[in-house]
Specification:
This protein is mainly α. It has 4 helices and no strands. Helix 1 (3-17) runs antiparallel to helix 2 and helix 2 (22-29) packs across helix 3. The longest helix has 21 residues, at 33-53. The termini are far apart. The model has no long low-confidence stretch (mean pLDDT 79).
Length: 81
């Protein structure tokens, strides 16, 4: 499998994770529906896990405080630290 084919499958995997129907993924990538069904089964646990975590925040996950950097991406803000 060459790099183009690998990237097609990676694109299809990401599309299936995003819950795009197999028929649409087939039209966009050219991968057969049979192969996409197998790929969809491989991706299903990741989709299920993402659905479980959807809507949770740091208090639900018990990971403590999360610090956010409100500064711009300008390096001049970092000079005084």
């Amino acid at each position: 499998m060459n790099n183009t084919e690998k990237e097609k499958y990676e694109l299809a995997r990401r599309m299936l994770k995003g819950k795009i129907p197999v028929e649409e993924v087939n039209l966009m990538t050219g991968i057969s529906i049979e192969k996409l069904k197998v790929l969809e089964e491989e991706v299903a646990p990741e989709v299920r896990d993402a659905k479980i975590l959807q809507g949770l925040d740091n208090t639900d996950l018990n990971i403590g405080e999360i610090l956010y950097d409100n500064n711009e991406t300008d390096d001049s803000y970092d000079e005084k630290y």
